[in-house]
Design the sequence.
């Protein structure tokens, strides 16, 4: 009873946060300590988006061939928005009327808060696929609850720091839009990316191993129901 009450209170707090932030913005909020941090407006370069979309398409096709009794959907609507998101990075697996898992496909920086939010609010686990490393990370409901709890607590702490006027400078100052004494020269601090197509072979080379990992996880879950 007490645990359910705590979970309900946490959901109320999270939904308040989602009125201020998109889920995709909240990883950065948890990764930064300064309450005055203002993130850059980041757009995925066309070459990286192309690599991502190619990898997603190949993974979906291979996954559906191996999971013949499971429906693979590239976009799953939820009450708090589409699972797919702006970059189309997540897919849903369903078995009849039951959601088996959400999948977040990453060819760049891996996020944990965003998929944790979807899992926490839907009660469906998320498999975070890192195609650069070939890792498949499982965010179950308990893990999602812990991540969301830390997010809520961290944002409250940042609000207290804001009220005190305390700034916490760090590496994120290179990418902060706020005008303060800790602002750094972006051109000096920014690393220039090389040829983005170098990542294509690595990403595509990991797809088969990732698909096998997803299949094993999904089949174990389905058989256990």
Sequence:
């Amino acid at each position: 009873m007490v645990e359910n009450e705590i979970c309900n209170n946490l959901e109320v707090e999270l939904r308040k946060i989602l009125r201020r932030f998109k889920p995709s913005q909240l990883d950065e909020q948890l990764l930064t300590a300064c309450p005055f941090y203002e993130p850059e407006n980041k757009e995925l370069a066309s070459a990286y988006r192309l690599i991502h979309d190619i990898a997603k398409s190949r993974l979906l096709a291979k996954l559906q061939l191996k999971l013949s009794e499971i429906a693979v959907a590239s976009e799953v609507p939820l009450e708090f928005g589409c699972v797919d998101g702006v970059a189309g990075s997540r897919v849903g697996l369903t078995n009849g009327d039951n959601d088996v898992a959400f999948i977040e496909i990453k060819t760049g920086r891996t996020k944990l808060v965003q998929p944790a939010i979807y899992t926490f609010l839907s009660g469906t686990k998320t498999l975070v696929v890192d195609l650069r490393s070939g890792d498949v990370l499982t965010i179950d409901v308990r893990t999602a609850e812990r991540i969301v709890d830390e997010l809520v607590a961290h944002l409250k702490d940042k609000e207290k720091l804001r009220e005190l006027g305390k700034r916490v400078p760090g590496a994120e100052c290179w990418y902060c839009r706020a005008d303060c004494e800790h602002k750094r020269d972006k051109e000096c601090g920014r690393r220039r990316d090389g040829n983005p197509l170098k990542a294509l072979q690595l990403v595509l080379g990991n797809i088969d191993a990732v698909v096998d990992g997803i299949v094993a996880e999904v089949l174990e879950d389905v058989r256990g129901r």
Confidence is low (pLDDT under 50) at residues 82-89.
